[in-house]
């Protein structure tokens, strides 16, 4: 008897996770787009995207991702993981390149084409969530499964670093080649025509890891669990694994046929039986992912306050357009290197020892503590040169990633039956993306200064950063409570967690 998993396929699968952040490289470039396309003559500040344009550029990608998570999650259970994942990769490659080639003779046309391709880019990225997690869970054994699924997600850290380093290198080259004064010295000359190439190249390079992953993905067979338990073809599953492992594997088709005849596990997603068996678990995975993403992505809104307060990023008017990209990318890469990436890999190494539940509970609890610790003495933290603000801010990111940001991705790929696994993961991920939309847009307005004259251009007065941080602390506390709904899957097989009949069906941990 031979294990159902394969180290070669798991190593290739781990690489999948670096795609999402690499393809979403537009955070720093939004500021450059404002300088290039929305300069206001005579203004004391560089041009910035109007709120409605900024919301459109960010919003279409998020909506596309949410739709892709639901659609491709469902399709992955209908057509198979391998086939559908190949579709999502090709969609990401094409749309990543097309986003950088956004054309037009005026700002409105450029932004319209950019938004169009970013929607479909997001749609493809959305499919990556349920499919990459499900593929990895079905290729892994119960002892190391959590670490391998978490590693898929942890590769986002390398994607963030890779994207940040590339932005730093590219902007450095352009800044050295095309010298430009700061905005306060020469408002027009501070944005050289060549700056338009910077954001386009950064977007298009995101296609590179997708192309590489597509090649590796074509070398992997369909997961044997899907072929045997969903497609009901144990013979094909045995043949696939024989090729991969280069040894003869005996099929157990007769046992699969008996299971099909006597199985009562044919209920649908919207049935009372599903609600009875998995309703609580699905509520747990969707609610925790939703609350996490509100808090996690809202934290990004405060980066400019933090970096500016300690002097890492000068005022925009003191920089030219390309140098601003360099400065912001350098600061964000340093945060990722010191807190985000270590947090991810702490989860990878400890999740199969500590368990999913403990790590998620710890992460939410510590995020709550640090958020309140940032909020109540907020005026103390933002004193010029106070490095403590960065330390506290970094710790919230560390415990988000050594915590629910990783576990909310892992658990939905483990606790649902094979024929609904990708669908349920897609629903959970879409709930998280809805939380990101709430965080990215709701808190963008909510965190504005209470004094209307000090709010960002085009935005109404809000409740201020301090009060917004208190709200986020409460949201993290609610995430801690909702974690109690999530089952622990440490050391259990997928079939044991999902309740699929292990007595009648062949041991799906073996062929």
TrEMBL record:
It is a multi-pass membrane protein. The keyword Cytoplasm does not apply. Pfam families: Sugar_tr. It is found in: Membrane. CDD domains: MFS_PhT. Signal peptide: none annotated. One of its GO terms (molecular function) is symporter activity. Residues 1-491 form the Major facilitator superfamily (MFS) profile domain. The chain crosses the membrane at residues 53-72, 84-103, 109-127, 148-174, 197-216, 359-378, 390-411, 423-447, 467-487. It catalyses: phosphate(in) + H(+)(in) = phosphate(out) + H(+)(out). Its main location: membrane. Keywords: Membrane, Phosphate transport, Symport, Transmembrane, Transmembrane helix, Transport. GO terms for cellular component: membrane. Gene3D superfamilies: MFS general substrate transporter like domains. GO terms for biological process: phosphate ion transport. Belongs to the major facilitator superfamily. Phosphate:H(+) symporter (TC 2.A.1.9) family. This is Major facilitator superfamily (MFS) profile domain-containing protein. It comes from Lactuca virosa.
């Amino acid at each position: 008897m031979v294990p159902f998993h394969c180290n070669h396929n798991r190593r290739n699968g781990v690489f999948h996770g670096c795609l999402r952040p690499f393809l979403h490289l537009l955070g720093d470039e939004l500021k450059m787009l404002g300088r290039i396309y929305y300069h206001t003559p005579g203004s004391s500040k560089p041009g910035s995207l109007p709120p409605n344009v900024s919301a459109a550029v960010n919003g279409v990608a998020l909506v596309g991702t949410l739709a892709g998570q639901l659609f491709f999650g469902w399709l992955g259970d209908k057509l198979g993981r391998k086939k559908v994942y190949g579709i999502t990769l090709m969609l990401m490659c094409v749309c990543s390149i097309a986003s950088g080639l956004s054309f037009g003779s005026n700002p409105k046309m450029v932004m319209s084409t950019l938004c169009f391709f970013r929607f479909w880019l997001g749609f493809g990225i959305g499919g990556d969530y349920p499919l990459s997690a499900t593929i990895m869970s079905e290729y892994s054994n119960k002892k190391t499964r959590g670490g391998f699924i978490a590693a898929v997600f942890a590769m986002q850290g390398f994607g963030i670093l890779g994207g940040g380093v590339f932005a730093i290198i590219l902007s450095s080259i352009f800044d050295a080649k095309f010298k430009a004064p700061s905005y306060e010295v020469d408002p027009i000359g501070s944005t050289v025509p060549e700056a338009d190439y910077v954001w386009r190249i950064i977007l298009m390079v995101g296609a590179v890891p997708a192309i590489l992953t597509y090649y590796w993905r074509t070398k992997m067979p369909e997961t044997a669990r899907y072929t045997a338990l969903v497609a009901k073809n144990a013979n094909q599953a045995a043949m696939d694994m024989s090729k991969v492992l280069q040894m003869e594997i005996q099929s157990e088709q007769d046992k699969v046929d008996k299971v099909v005849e006597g199985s009562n596990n044919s209920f649908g997603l919207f049935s009372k039986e599903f609600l009875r068996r998995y309703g609580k678990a699905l509520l747990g995975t969707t609610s925790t992912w939703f609350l996490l993403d509100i808090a996690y992505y809202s934290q990004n809104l405060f980066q400019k306050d933090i970096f500016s307060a300690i002097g890492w990023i000068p005022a925009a008017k003191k920089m030219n357009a390309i140098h601003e990209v360099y400065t912001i990318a350098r600061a964000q890469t340093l945060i990722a290197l010191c807190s985000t990436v270590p947090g991810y890999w702490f989860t990878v190494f400890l999740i199969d020892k500590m368990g999913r539940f403990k790590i998620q509970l710890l992460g939410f609890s510590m995020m709550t503590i640090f958020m309140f610790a940032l909020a109540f003495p907020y005026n103390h933290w933002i004193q010029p040169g106070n490095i403590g603000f960065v330390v506290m801010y970094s710790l919230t990111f560390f415990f988000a990633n050594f915590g629910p940001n990783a576990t909310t991705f892992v658990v939905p790929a483990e606790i649902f039956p094979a024929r609904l696994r990708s669908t349920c993961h897609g629903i959970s991920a879409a709930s998280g993306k809805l939380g990101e939309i709430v965080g990215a847009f709701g808190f963008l307005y909510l965190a504005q200064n209470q004094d209307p004259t000090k709010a960002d251009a085009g935005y109404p007065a809000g409740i201020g950063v301090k009060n917004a941080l208190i709200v986020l602390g409460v949201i993290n506390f609610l995430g801690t409570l909702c974690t109690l709904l999530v089952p622990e899957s440490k050391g259990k097989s997928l079939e044991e967690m999902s309740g699929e009949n292990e007595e009648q069906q062949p041991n799906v941990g073996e062929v």
